[in-house]
Amino acid sequence: MVANTEYGWRRDDLRKLFSSLVRGKLDYAAPGWQGWLSNSNVEAMDRVQNRGIRLITGQMKSSPVDALRLEAGFPPYATHIERMCLRSAEKASRVPEDHPIFLAATKAVPPKGDRRSWKSRADELLPRVPVEARNRKPIRWFTRPPWKPPADIVVFDEVPWVASRDDDMELKRLAAEAQLDSHNADLVIYTDGSADGVARDGGAGVVITRGMAARPTVLKTIQVKGAARTCLCEEEVEAAKRAVRWICEESTPMPIQRS
Question: Domain 169-258 falls in which CATH fold?
Answer without folding.
Answer: Nucleotidyltransferase; domain 5 (3.30.420)
